[in-house]
Specification:
alpha/beta, Udp-n-acetylmuramoylalanyl-d-glutamate--2,6- Diaminopimelate Ligase, Chain: A, domain 1, globular
Length: 116
Amino acid sequence: MKLEELEKLLQAKVVVDSDNLEFNIDSACSADMMSSVLYYHTPNSLLITSLTQPHVVRTAEIAGIKIIVFVLNKQPDQVTIDLAKEKHIPILVTPYCMYTASGKLFEAGLPGCLNK
């Protein structure tokens, strides 16, 4: 699934854009515990979370996560935005809760990290 598709499906606003629109996301994970993200992630996935602090971007970088989606219209601060730009990790903000965002992606055919 491409960034444009995610944006439409999740009715999301792009906060940090990508300079690479050609990459495809293969799976998704939803978590607020970054230790779970590190344990259960798969490369080339996206992370759905309600946490907006810089440590989420650092965790995504370590885990090879390509996109971060913040739920419930939660806006990241400037430090998080700047770090995501530096690490080339797009950030989207969706009005949906984590459950609904995950369900919409699953319904559209994007598997969860543990289902790969």
